[in-house]
Amino acid sequence: MSETTQNVGARPVNFSPSAAHHRASPAHHDSFSGNTRSLDELMILKPYFAGQPKSLSGIALRAFCLGITLACSAISMGAILFLTSSPVWRVPFFLFALSAFHFLEFWTTAEKNTLVASIGSFLLTANWPAYAIAHSAAFIECATINLFFPNRHWAPYGTGPILLLLGLVMVTVGQYVRSVAMLQAGASFNHHVQTRKKDSHELVTLGIYSIFRHPSYFGFFYWGLGTQLVMGNVLCFFAYAAVLWMFFSKRIKHEEAKLIEFFQDDYVQYRKRVGTKIPFIA
Length: 282
Known about the structure:
Keywords: Endoplasmic reticulum, Membrane, Methyltransferase, S-adenosyl-L-methionine, Transferase, Transmembrane, Transmembrane helix. By secondary structure, this protein is mostly helical. It has helices spanning 19-22, 32-45, 56-83, 90-112, 130-148, 160-185, 215-231, 234-263, 265-273; strands spanning 7-8, 11-12.
């Protein structure tokens, strides 16, 4: 996220919350406007203070933790793969994929939709607690099967290596498509369905949006299924498929009603030309 500097007159902005207090007692009558300006600066910067939605310390802490988790999971995965024959590497793989996903959610927002970037852009607590329960179930199934039944053959007809490769491709492509979609949409992208059209909203139909009508949903749908293939989770694969399909089917229907309201026939024609590429969601 690029750094910006604000200049107010000839004085540098003081980012300390105590700045207004130190300047609150006027030495003479000419200081009133200066105090007002300091309070205005404080209100502008307030969202970035600790405990606020855009807290810089909160963002830094989450990015640091995700980076450490990603590095540790990558090292663990590599060590298990190269030093043992255990399939338990699949557990840190999921942690690696999750860490990369949540970091990229914030980074893409901060890069191209800077004004709305906040702690919530990491999506760490999105759809809580269902999201956490789903991933916890995936971890438990994968760890249980691979620790206690390491020689289990979960794939039919010896297709395990093929399904593993397919899962890796789905995770990679899904993450790429979602991140590119967020970058190309820029200020028109939002993690929440918008109910009112803003001046910054544009109908994006070029680039990856010329291939997928909802590329961010396509990306997450196949990313989620891909992680379960890599992990060898039979139960969670089908559970993820059902839950994700129902979620996106309902969300797309609701979102497109608003998009037609915003862009009218332009969106109707776009919807006719471009599909979602998610099964049974036209």
